[in-house]
Design brief:
mainly beta, 3 helices, binds zinc ion
Length: 211
């Protein structure tokens, strides 16, 4: 994993435990690095304009802007108002989904059986974390799934298959506005998105402008 430039000012460097929610503000010009510390871990992520939380990540507009079904280096992460929120500047993995959404207790019962109803899910994580910022479950929109491997076939059907990310794989994004980043370190254990074993991840926010 390439080192963060020595001249950078580290704003935050934090491990996110397995299954846990997390949030932080990434200011305009700062870089957000998300590291899949142990590999094969899905990182469900949402972005909101920090000064207007009604402006938020739009998977539809992001994919339309790229003309592609996935996000990677060069992708503009676009809001529901058509503005670029962040731009992906590095990607050591190459497979990230923004079509399959976040797991929920309800969808788990449909997909895996009613006996999974009690299990923790990303939607609960997002709601818990969103509430800290005055948001409710109505504000949870379709999200990015970094490191989640979701092949889409020519007819548009998709499946979640084994993740390919290795320990230390990472993505980087430079914020083009002040953004609130919400992460659910996905607790899913019923499909292979986490290798059936959720693990901690790490996030670093740094400012490359200051020495
Ligand atoms: Zn999940």
């Amino acid at each position: 994993m390439p080192a963060i430039p020595a001249s950078a000012r580290i704003v935050l460097d934090q491990d996110i435990p397995s299954r846990a929610p997390w949030s932080a503000i990434v200011k305009k010009g700062q870089t957000l690095r998300i590291i899949d510390s142990h590999g094969q871990q899905a990182v469900d992520t949402l972005f909101y304009n920090a000064s207007d939380l009604q402006e938020r990540y739009s998977s539809q507009d992001t994919l339309r802007a790229q003309g592609a079904a996935y996000v990677s280096t060069g992708t503009a992460i676009v809001s529901n108002e058509g503005r670029t929120m962040l731009r992906m500047t590095a990607d050591s993995c190459g497979l990230h989904d923004t079509s399959a959404g976040a797991c929920s207790c309800e969808s788990n019962t449909v997909r895996f059986g009613h006996h999974t109803r009690y299990q923790h899910a990303c939607r609960e994580n997002f709601v818990i974390e969103a509430m800290k910022h005055g948001l409710t479950k109505r504000d949870i929109v379709p999200n990015l799934n970094f490191f989640m491997n979701v092949p889409i076939d020519p007819s548009g059907n998709f499946t979640v298959v084994d993740g390919v990310s290795k320990p230390g794989d990472y993505v980087e994004m430079v914020a083009e506005m002040d953004v609130l980043c919400l992460i659910s370190n996905c607790p899913q254990i019923n499909n292979p998105c986490n290798g059936f074993f959720p693990t901690p991840i790490r996030v670093v926010i740094y400012d490359a402008q200051e020495g």
